[in-house]
Structure formats: structure tokens, C-alpha cells
Amino acid sequence: MAAGNPVAVVTGGGRGIGAGISTALARHGFDAVIGWTSDEDSAVKTAARIGETTSARTLLVRGDVADEQTSKDLAAAALAEFGRLDCWVNNAGYMAAGSILELTGDQVRRCFEINLLGTFYGIQSAAAAMGEAGGRIVNISSEAGIRAWPLYGAYAPSKFAQIGLGQVAALELGRRGITVNTVCPGIIETDMVLDKWAAESAVTQTPVADIRAAVTAETLTGALCTPEDVGDAVAWLASASAGSVTGQSICVNAGVTLH
Ligand code: NAD
């Protein structure tokens, strides 16, 4: 076993759900490499908050996950700065919403480049860097990866595919001591969802508050999940307690889907 705290890479770990994951892993004793691409302020704030509230060390690394080199840079940064890699979370994601009649090929391509190819490169780099020691890979898909929604003709297929990729990786990497699981969040009020609600409101003339209320009414708990809820699920999957859990898709969606 390598010396020092366990180390995690979290792509898109600076804001939204990714910030919830980085923070939860830090609370559970992980040092973290936080990937970011366009929102440096959020990543800096998340790292500062982790520094104020835990003893975890953080490192910010910029790059587009659709570029193969980014995953290599993230893995190399973990090994160079912290000397080990124990957990990799493919969280970075992109949504393009619109009817199939309106979505463009470029929007579909970008969803697949970031959500699927980015995860693919992440799994490759994580497995190479973890080596013989094994580790944990967690992919953040979506409730939209297990059921269809209107207007998700670009996003949902990429999220379905992410689950399939995770299952193949679990099959191939299990004997190397690497577990691969997928977390499927329900609707969580991040920038991604606020943008989507604003667009939906403009099209349907439904106030955002009414859209929010309708989505909340679908939950079994009467409350939307939070980035912290997803972070806690990832922290458990990254822990020693979850060593026998692999190849699974776990919904953190307040029971909106039952399976
Ligand atoms: P967000 O837009 O707030 O954050 C997305 C993160 O991914 C940001 O940090 C962004 O910088 C990063 N990112 C985007 N494109 C990137 C790229 N090409 N390279 C590197 N980083 C990139 O969204 P969020 O809601 O926090 O989403 C996080 C993950 O959770 C995504 O995979 C998303 O699909 C998934 N998800 C979100 C919800 C939700 O309701 N918010 C529900 C289900 C699944």
C-alpha cells in the first residue's frame, strides 16, 4: 500500500455535483485532483472551501475531457503531486436539450465526446495509473441514462452508453482489483439544470418555479437531491466498505425511478 492519504481525480470537480463529490471525498480523507475546463473561479472556491474545512490537499488541473491528453494529464498530476491514485470520478458532463427534429449533429457529437468518450479516456488513464494496486472508478451518468425523456435525444443516449461502458469496464478490470460503478443522479439544481429550466420555461411559458414544483412532486421524499447526496454515494463507492460492489448503476434520485 502506497504511503499518504488516498488520492482521487474528479473531472469537472470544481462546481455543481462535481464540487459535492470533491468535498465528500475530501471529508473522507482523500486528497483530490480537481479537473476544470471553463469555470476557474468555481474550482478555486471549491478547493479553498475544502482547505478550510478538511485537512485534504487539492490540485487544480485544466483540460477538456474530450481530449485524450486531459485524462493523461490528470493521472500524471495525481502521481507526480501525491504519489498514488486510488479513485477516479468521471463527472464532467454536457447537456444539449431540444427535440430530435431540432438538435444538430454537432450537439449530439459534443454530448458523446464529453459524456462517453471523456469517460472512456478517464477509465483508460485511471486503470493505467492505478496499476497493480487496484482502485475505484465511479462514472456519473444520469436518471436520463436509464429512462427516456423528451428533448434528451442527444444527452440521454450518451448517458445510456456511459452505463454500458461502465459495465464492460467492470467486467474487464475486476480481476485487477478495480471496481467500476455508475451513479445516476436525478434532477439536481445546478447550473446545468437551471439553464435547462430557463430554456424550457421560454418554450412552454411555464414559470421556472412551477417546473421546479412539478419535478419535486415526482420524488418520493418531496425534496430534490443535492450535490452533497451524490458526493456521499460516491464516497461510499470509493471506500473499503464497497469492495464487493462493481458493475452497478445506483440512482440518487429520491426514488423517482424504482428498479
Ligand atoms: P454543471 O454544468 O454544473 O457541471 C459540469 C461540470 O463538468 C463543470 O465543472 C464543467 O466545467 C465540467 N465540464 C463540462 N464540459 C467539460 C469538458 N469538455 N471537459 C472538462 N470538464 C467539463 O453540471 P452538473 O449538474 O454538476 O453535472 C455534473 C454531472 O452530473 C454531469 O455528468 C451531468 O450530466 C450529471 N448529471 C446532472 C444532473 C443534474 O440534475 N444536475 C442529473 C443527472 C446527471
List keywords for this structure.
259 residues; alpha/beta; Rossmann fold; 8 helices; 7 strands; globular; binds nicotinamide-adenine-dinucleotide; oxidoreductase activity, acting on the CH-OH group of donors, NAD or NADP as acceptor; SDR_fam; NAD(P)-bd_dom_sf; oxidoreductase
What would you say about this model in short?
The chain has 259 residues and is of the alpha/beta class. Helix content is 47%, strand content 14%. A 7-stranded parallel sheet has the order 3-2-1-4-5-6-7, with helices on both faces.
Outline the structure in words.
It comes from Mycolicibacterium madagascariense. Belongs to the short-chain dehydrogenases/reductases (SDR) family. Keywords: Oxidoreductase. InterPro entries: NAD(P)-bd_dom_sf (IPR036291), SDR_fam (IPR002347). The chain is of the alpha/beta class and 259 residues long. The chain has a single domain, classed as NAD(P)-binding Rossmann-like Domain (Rossmann fold, 3-Layer(aba) Sandwich), CATH 3.40.50.720. It has 8 helices and 7 strands; from the N terminus they run βαβαβαβαβαβαααβ. It has helices spanning 16-27, 40-53, 68-82, 105-130, 155-173, 191-204, 208-217, 227-237; strands at residues 7-10, 31-36, 58-62, 87-90, 135-140, 178-185, 249-252. A 7-stranded parallel β-sheet has the order 3-2-1-4-5-6-7, sandwiched between helices. The longest helix has 26 residues, at 105-130. The radius of gyration is 18 Å and the shape is globular. The mean pLDDT is 97. Nicotinamide-adenine-dinucleotide (NAD) binds at residues 11-12, 14-18, 35-39, 64-66, 91-94, 114, 140, 142-143, 185, 187-188, 190-193.
